[in-house]
């Protein structure tokens, strides 16, 4: 084998390896939603607080979701996955529930316990 043929062969092998590595990396990145599932992060308010106002704003972020609800009512996120919704609290003890479902049907729920005095 001449040096020129050997160089061509090595170049082809390296190109195949780089393309395969790129495809595997892309597949792993796209599979993130599959193995992580839906995620909810509630920034405000924190669970267990007491408030003297009946109108309170629930804010946070969600990722890998296809459906998001606050106390059973559908809410929406912006392009970055951030949500912000205001609700009225009943006098006394309140439980606020945020639920998310992903495209594979997996569901995650977070609850806040709030007291309106």
UniProtKB/TrEMBL annotation:
Name of the protein this chain belongs to: Bacterial Ig domain-containing protein
Database matches in InterPro entries: Ig-like_fold
One Pfam family recorded for the sequence: Glucodextran_B
Species classification: Bacteria, Candidatus Tayloriibacteriota
Organism: Candidatus Taylorbacteria bacterium CG10_big_fil_rev_8_21_14_0_10_41_48
């Amino acid at each position: 084998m001449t040096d020129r043929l050997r160089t061509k062969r090595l170049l082809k092998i390296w190109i195949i390896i780089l393309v395969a590595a790129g495809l595997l990396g892309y597949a792993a990145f796209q599979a993130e939603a599959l193995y992580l599932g839906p995620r909810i992060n509630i920034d405000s308010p924190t669970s267990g607080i007491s408030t003297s106002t009946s109108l309170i704003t629930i804010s946070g972020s969600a990722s890998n979701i296809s459906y998001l609800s606050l106390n059973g009512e559908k809410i929406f996120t912006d392009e970055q996955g951030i949500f912000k919704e205001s609700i009225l609290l009943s006098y006394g003890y309140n439980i606020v529930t945020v639920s998310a479902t992903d495209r594979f049907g997996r569901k995650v729920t977070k609850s806040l316990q709030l007291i309106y005095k």
